[in-house]
Amino acid sequence: MKLLTFLAAATCVGAVRTSLEELQAFFRQRAELDANRSSTLEMSTTRKKKEEPKECHEIVGGAEKRERWHMFGGDCKCPNEHVVAGKSWECGDALGHRHFSNKLAPSSCTCQPTTKCESMAQGAVERNSHSKNPDRPCKCADKDSVLEGKSEECALFIGERHFPNTLRPQECYCHQSNLVEHDCEEIAQGATQIDKKSARCKCPEDTFIGGEAQQCKDFYGAHIFPKRLKPGLCQCTANVRKPGSSGGRLQLGVLPFLLLAGMIW
Questions:
Q1: What angle is formed at CA 99 by the lines to CA 95 and CA 101, rounded to 5 degrees?
Q2: What is the mean pLDDT of the chain?
Q3: Strands of 145-148's sheet in order across
Q4: Which of 106, 102, 93, 60 is nearest to 79 (CA)?
């Protein structure tokens, strides 16, 4: 009799274990399926947002719609003697231009007044190729000099010979280069030098610079960064889905079931 009771109990436990395994597998599959759907939906939504026309001021602060007929340049514009300014990886092709498309994604870029290079930074002049490089039309006249300055505006271009004409006048200046350059791999694992002549590095494809140090935050989201960054503080990171997405919430919802299963074991 005791043997029969024991066998019945063992059979019951085995059935419970099988049910728990099936339950875990079910929720795991649901989580993966929902995460894939969420990722596809986010990509589709992002693509749609970029394609749909938006208010000009939503894309670039201070911009407005162009009223006169035009064939080129886009439907948005900055005020006279103003151009799009900000981080290159956010402003994209609009950087340094007065006119831009209303199909671009919203950004933190703004319309800023332009200043003659000579008046903006001591030792600076306008580049001969300024029309071909609207994002960086100024340069240090001395080929061995680079931009310096303690202002936050200078931070993105310190150590660079070429820079925008939207920096606040007299905040930055050209100075004999004395910055130490480091190997790209030392600055961020996986990064490589763009070419032998360039003092810039690039992260592997589909990754960007990140990290908690201020120098990493200055270039956060950039695929390309200068060799002057200090080693060991930044890393090249994949652009994953932001925390708090529906996929993440579903995984948290599944967690109690998995914990319950573990307790029953």
A1: 85
A2: 78
A3: 121-122, 172-176, 145-148
A4: 60
Of 43, 28, 52, residue with least CA distance to 254: 28
Task: Using DSSP bridges, classify how beta strands 172-176 and 121-122 pair: parallel, antiparallel or unpaired.
Answer: parallel
Report the alpha-carbon distance of residue 83 to residue 62 in Å, rounded: 10
Write down the pTM of the prediction: 0.57
Hunting for tokens 């680079």 — which residue is that?
146
Q: What are phi and psi of 84, to 5 degrees?
A: -70, 130
CA dist 94 and 9 (Å) reads 72
Tokens of 184: 């790209």
* Count of C-beta atoms within a 10 Å radius of residue 89: 17
- Tokens, residue 147: 């931009």
Structure tokens at 130: 């300024």
Q: What is the pLDDT of residues 32-53, one digit of tens each?
A: 655 555 544 454 445 545 556 7
